[in-house]
Design brief:
Elements lengths: L1 E3 L9 E3 L2 E6 L2 E6 L10 H21 L2 H9 L7 H9 L24 E6 L3 E6 L15 E13 L7 E7 L3 E2 L6 E6 L2 H7 L2 E13 L5 E4 L3 E5 L1
Antiparallel strand pairs: 1-4, 2-3, 3-4, 5-6, 6-10, 7-8, 7-9, 7-11, 11-12, 11-13
Helix pairs in contact: 1-3, 2-3
C-alpha cells in the first residue's frame, strides 16, 4: 500500500479499476484491489468445511458449560484457550453431519462411571449410573456430591427447512454420592428444548460426571460416556 503525500484530492476513498483508495488518519493511501475469491466447489472442500463446522458447534456446546470450560483450561497448555483445545481434541472424530463415540467432553481422567440405563423423551433425559465403588476412583471421605453435564445431539430432522442437526445442553441437580445404590438423574427439558427435540428423529447423548466436596468445590471429572438413542 502506498501513501499519497499530495492532498490536492482532499480525502479520497473508493476504487478505480484495479486501484483502491483509502483515507486513514487524514492520510490518503493507494493499493491494488484484491482479487475476487471464489470458494472451491469440489466435494473435498465441501466435506472439510462441513467437518469444521460440526467440530466448531460441538466445541461451542461443550465450552458453554462453565465447569467444562474451567476443566479444559486447567488441563491445557499455558495460554491456550479451552475452546481451542476442545476443538483440536475432537476434530478428528467428527464428520460433516455426525461424530463418533471417540469425542470427548472432558480431558483424560482416571475417574469413570458405569451407565446402567439411559432414556430420553421430549420432556426429560433420564440417566441411571451404577453405584460408585472404589473401582470408580471415588474418595468418599472427600467427594460428597455428583452432577451430570450432558449434551444431546439431535439429527435426522422430521421437517424440511430445519437444520441438519442441533445441540441441547443439559445440567442435572447435584445428588449425594452413594457407594451402595445406583444413582438416578432425571433432567427435565425446558419447553423450548422440548420443542426442538420433537423436530428430530434421532439423538445421541454424550455426558460426563463431576464431583464436589462438602464446600461445593469441584474435585474431579469423569471420562466421557457416549450413548445413541434412536
Amino acid at each position: 500500500m502506498a501513501e499519497l503525500n499530495n492532498k490536492i484530492f482532499g480525502s479520497i476513498k473508493g476504487s478505480l479499476g484495479d486501484v483502491v483508495f483509502r483515507s486513514r488518519n487524514e492520510k490518503n493511501y493507494i493499493a491494488r484491489k484484491p482479487k475476487a475469491y471464489s470458494a472451491p466447489g469440489d466435494s473435498g472442500f465441501i466435506e472439510r468445511t462441513g467437518k469444521f463446522k460440526m467440530a466448531v458447534k460441538l466445541a461451542s456446546a461443550i465450552n458453554s458449560f462453565f465447569l467444562l470450560k474451567k476443566i479444559w483450561k486447567d488441563n491445557s497448555a499455558a495460554g491456550k484457550a479451552s475452546f481451542t483445545r476442545i476443538l483440536q481434541m475432537n476434530y478428528p472424530f467428527v464428520t460433516e453431519n455426525n461424530f463418533t463415540n471417540m469425542v470427548k467432553m472432558t480431558p483424560r481422567s482416571s475417574f469413570a462411571v458405569n451407565l446402567q440405563n439411559l432414556s430420553m423423551t421430549n420432556q426429560s433425559l433420564n440417566i441411571e449410573l451404577a453405584a460408585l465403588s472404589a473401582a470408580s476412583n471415588i474418595n468418599a471421605s472427600v467427594e460428597k456430591k455428583i452432577q451430570i453435564l450432558a449434551i444431546v445431539f439431535l439429527y435426522n430432522p422430521l421437517h424440511d427447512g430445519l437444520p441438519e442437526f442441533d445441540f441441547l445442553k443439559l445440567l442435572s441437580l447435584k445428588l449425594d454420592i452413594d457407594n451402595v445404590n445406583p444413582l438416578t438423574f432425571n433432567i427435565p427439558l425446558l419447553t423450548a428444548d422440548s420443542e426442538i427435540a420433537a423436530n428430530y428423529g434421532s439423538s445421541k447423548i454424550i455426558f460426563a460426571a463431576v464431583t464436589f466436596d462438602s464446600e461445593d468445590a469441584l474435585v474431579q471429572f469423569s471420562s466421557t460416556i457416549n450413548h445413541a438413542v434412536d
